[in-house]
Amino acid sequence: MADTMIADMPTNTNPTRSKKGGRTRKALKPTNQSPDEPITSAGVVATPPEDAAAGKENHESLSQPKKTKSKKKPDLSSNFEKELEEMQEKLQQLRIEKEQTEEMVKARDEMLKQKDEEIKKLQKIKEFKPTMTFPIALSVGDRELEKKEKKKGCPQMKRPSPPYILWCKDQWNEIKKVNPEAEFKDISTILGTKWKTVTAEEKKPYEEKYQAEKEAYLKVVGNEKRENEAMKLLEEEQKQKTAMELLEQKEKDPLKPKQPMSAFFVFANARRAALVSENKSVVEVAKITGEEWKNMTEKQKKPYEKIAKTNKERYAEEMEAYKQKKEEEAINLKNEDEEQMKIQKQEALQLLKKKEKAENIIKKTKENRQKKKQQKEEKNADPNKPKKPASSFILFRKEIRKNLMEERPGINNSTLNALVSVKWKELSEQDKLIWNEKAAKAMEAYKKELEEYNKIAEVKENSKA
User: Fold this and answer.
1) Burial tier of 207 (Cβ tally within 10 Å: 0-12, 13-18, 19+)
2) Burial class (CB in 10 A: 0-12, 13-18, 19+), 161
3) What is the CATH number of the domain that holds 400?
4) Looking at the domain assignment, is residue 78 inside a domain?
């Protein structure tokens, strides 16, 4: 069969390619054939005649496009990712909301704490009642209140208004009648322009009024300053005197009633004597009384509770009486302090006067001393009197100073003096002897001149006498 098929197949004798038909197909390369596969030659497969028809049918069926229904699979992965993203966004929002709520809670807690602290402070201030009286502090506070009252009631304490403002007060109503619709700015500009045209004679009464008010104001202010200075001096003296007294005073008031004991402590005091007789320690007594109190019935506790109740009522009555007494004492002390303030002001003014007198005396004594010194100097200042000679170091300095100034122009005095002292120390004893001899000669000459001068002065005095 294979031989017949090969013989029947047409063969192309021309090895050259035909130019017709455009492109040509390349021959397939022969592959290693297995013994079971059919024999092929020149790229054509030898098929049996029985299978040829079936092959054609299969070829036709393959060449036709298959009509298959493409079923789209649902995108599960994309839906899952979207759901995940939504869930993550919701989680983030919940976290943010949680953080915000926590911050709000913290802020609220802080605000509540601050309010509680403020309430406690206010309660302490209300409950505080000093056991000691401080007359100095009270006097200062009363003095400040008096000042405020004076400033409110007394018109002299106000600063005097200048002449321009006094003139404006007089002219305001007239300009307002002429210009009823004008505002404050417009009226002030009109007054300013009009004030420039006012003559000196018209300004005189306003200026005189201003000066009179100014003098009165300065007097009041000066008196107040004087009183303040005097009070400061007095307060300093009183502080020094009362410092030790305040330290010696007791802070606790012995007259203040003590707080009553509770029912348990009443029971413990009654039971303590028996337990102490049994040689029990304080800790053991406390433990035993606590256990016994817990195990007691209400009927057994009733007598102790009655005693505690009566003590509490008595304490409340005593406390009310104590408070009333303290209030009365405070009123009396205030009245006494007011009276003392008047006395203290007078004492303070006296102290200030004494201080001023002492300062004036010191000034006068200083001035007198200076005058006496000047007079003595004028008397003793005789141009013919010989002057004391310079020492050996000063003579050395005069000569060395010139040389150093020439060597180092623009040198400071401090550095120059330092250099001179260094060079003087570096000098040997023989060199120093030269300067000492010069100073000694000058001293001898000075003594001779002074003796002659004194003799002449004695002769003059004798001649005058």
Assistant:
1) middle
2) middle
3) 1.10.30.10
4) no
Altogether, the residues listed in the chain come to a count of: 465
Q: At what angle do helices 200-248 and 298-380 cross, to 10 degrees?
A: 120
What is the three-class DSSP state of 130?
A: coil
Local structure of 45: helix, strand or coil: strand
Which range scores top for mean pLDDT: 3-7, 48-52, 96-100? 96-100
Residue with tokens 């009286």: 133
3-state secondary structure 412-441: CHHHHHHHHHHHHHHCCHHHHHHHHHHHHH
Model confidence pLDDT, tens digit, residues 365-422: 888 888 888 777 766 666 777 888 888 888 888 888 888 888 877 777 878 888 888 8
What number of other Cβ atoms are within 10 A of residue 76's Cβ? 8
Residues 270-305 as b or e (16 or more Cβ within 10 Å = b): eebeebeeeeeeeeebeebbeeebeeeeeeeeeebe
Burial zone of 208 (CB within 10 Å; 0-12 exposed, 13-18 middle, 19+ buried) = exposed
Give the C-alpha separation, 309 to 301, whole Å: 12
Q: Is 40 helix (H, G, I), strand (E, B) or coil?
A: strand
Spatial separation of the C-alpha atoms in residues 190 and 187, rounded to whole Å: 5
Handedness of CA 389, 394, 399, 401 (dihedral sign): negative
**Judgement on whether residues 285 and 348 belong to the same structural domain of the protein:** yes
Q: Is 253 in a helix, a strand, or coil?
A: coil
What is the helix (H) or strand (E) element at residue 178, kind and residue range? helix 163-178
341 within some domain: yes
Q: Which two tokens stand for residue 388?
A: 């004391």
